[in-house]
Design brief:
The protein is α/β, with parallel strands linked by helices and 322 residues long. The chain has 2 domains: 176 residues, Rossmann fold, CATH 3.40.50; 132 residues, Glucose Oxidase, domain 1. 37% of the residues lie in helices and 19% in strands. It contains 12 helices and 13 strands. The strands form 2 sheets. It has a 7-stranded mixed β-sheet. Strands 2-1-3-4-5-11 form a 6-stranded mixed β-sheet, sandwiched between helices. The longest helix is centred in the first third of the chain and has 17 residues. It is globular and about 45 Å long. It starts with a helix and ends with a strand.
Length: 322
C-alpha cells in the first residue's frame, strides 16, 4: 500500500473515532510519518514565538514547496491561554484540511509547552505529518513521541537556519528526512566507548528538564538521548543534568549523542567542564557517548529524526526510521 493511499484512508471522514484510532495504530507500524511529496505545500507554524523571515520562506519556495504562512501568532507582550488555544486551533486545522505536506516551525523561543495541551493527539496520530523544529520546539517533539507515538525532525527553523542558509550536507539531510530517508551522519568524537541501539529522544537540554512532571515528560529508559544547548554557562548545564539525574532520567540510557553547546563553554576550560559534567551525569548508565554531533544552535544544523531507531557504534552513529 502506497503512502498516498494510506494518507487518504487515514484522513477519511468515513472512519469513526475508534476505527480511526485503531487505524492510526496500524499505520504507526508501517510508516513513521508521511513523506513530503514533490511540490506539496509546507505550513509554517509558530507555536513558540513569531518572527518574520522572507529568506526562510524563500528557501522553502525555492525548493518547489508553496508556503502556507502562519495566521495565529503570539502578540509579543506576555502569554495567554487565548493565544495558546488559537495557536493550537491553527495547528490542528492544518491536519484537518489536508493541504500541508509538512509543518516547519518559524522559530524557537518560548511557548510550545503551553500549546501542546490544546492539541488533538488522535488527529495528529492519524495525519502523521512530518514536523521540523528545534530549541523550544523540543516540547512539541516530546509530546508527539509521548502522546502520539510519532517520529519528528529536530532541525533548522524558518527564521534561523533556513534564513541564514545551510551547508550542503545539512540541507541534503533535511530534505532526505522529509522524504523519509535518513542521511548518513559524520563520525563524532568518542567520549565513552561501547555500542548501543535504542529509540532516539532528546532535544534542547533546558526543555528536557522542563518536561519533568508534564504530559510531555521525556522518556529515556533504554533510549539514546540527544542533547544540545545555547547560551547557558557550564553551571546551568550541570544544574539541568543534575535535575534529570535526580529524576531518574539518566540511569538507564542506551547511549548519548552530544550536539552543539553553542556559547556554553566559551573557552577550553569551559568546554572541559561541560564534558566532565555530561560524563559524570551519565556514568550510571555505562553507555556509549559520542560528541561532536553537528546539530543544535550552532552553524551546523544537521537534522535528526527523533523517535527513530538509533545505533551508536563510536565514533559512528546511524538512524533507521521505524
Amino acid at each position: 500500500m502506497s503512502a498516498g493511499c494510506v494518507r487518504t484512508l487515514a484522513r477519511s471522514p468515513l472512519l469513526g473515532n475508534l476505527r480511526a484510532t485503531l487505524f492510526g495504530i496500524f499505520v504507526a507500524l508501517l510508516i513513521p510519518y508521511f513523506p513530503l511529496a514533490t511540490g506539496a505545500p509546507v505550513a509554517v507554524i509558530a507555536p513558540a514565538a513569531e518572527a518574520t523571515s522572507d529568506a526562510g520562506i524563500a528557501f522553502l519556495e525555492g525548493a518547489g514547496h508553496p508556503v502556507i504562512r502562519p495566521m495565529a501568532v503570539r502578540g509579543g507582550h506576555g502569554w495567554s491561554r487565548a493565544e495558546d488555544v488559537a495557536l493550537a486551533r491553527e495547528l490542528n486545522g492544518h491536519l484537518r484540511d489536508g493541504r500541508a505536506g509538512a509543518l516547519v516551525c518559524v522559530r524557537g523561543g518560548y511557548g510550545s509547552g503551553r500549546v501542546v495541551d490544546h492539541l488533538d493527539p488522535a488527529l495528529w496520530a492519524r495525519a502523521r505529518l512530518p514536523l521540523v523544529g528545534m530549541s523550544d520546539i523540543t516540547a512539541l517533539h516530546l509530546w508527539l513521541q509521548r502522546q502520539c507515538n510519532l517520529q519528528s525532525i529536530y532541525g533548522p527553523v524558518v527564521a534561523g537556519g533556513l534564513a541564514r542558509g545551510l551547508v550542503a550536507e545539512d540541507e541534503a539531510a533535511l530534505w532526505a528526512l522529509l522524504a523519509g530517508a535518513p542521511p548518513t551522519y559524520p563520525a563524532g568524537e568518542v567520549w565513552r566507548p561501547g555500542r548501543a541501539t535504542g529509540v532516539l529522544t532528546g532535544g534542547c537540554l533546558t526543555l528536557l528538564t522542563s518536561s519533568i512532571g508534564t504530559t510531555w515528560e521525556v522518556e529515556t529508559a533504554g533510549r539514546c538521548l540527544f542533547i544540545e544547548e545555547v547560551n547557558e554557562p557550564p553551571y546551568a548545564v550541570d544544574r539541568c543534568l543534575t535535575q534529570l539525574g535526580q529524576a531518574g532520567k539518566l540511569d538507564h540510557l542506551a547511549g548519548v549523542l552530544v550536539g552543539t553547546f553553542h556559547h556554553c563553554g566559551r573557552d577550553a576550560e569551559g568546554a572541559a567542564t561541560l564534558r566532565a559534567s555530561i560524563l559524570e551525569a551519565t556514568a550510571t548508565s555505562h553507555c556509549p557517548v559520542v560528541a561532536g554531533v553537528p546539530c543544535g544552535h550552532g552553524d551546523r544544523q544537521m537534522a535528526l529524526p527523533l523517535g527513530a531507531e538509533c545505533t551508536i557504534d563510536p565514533p559512528c552513529y546511524s538512524m533507521r526510521l521505524r
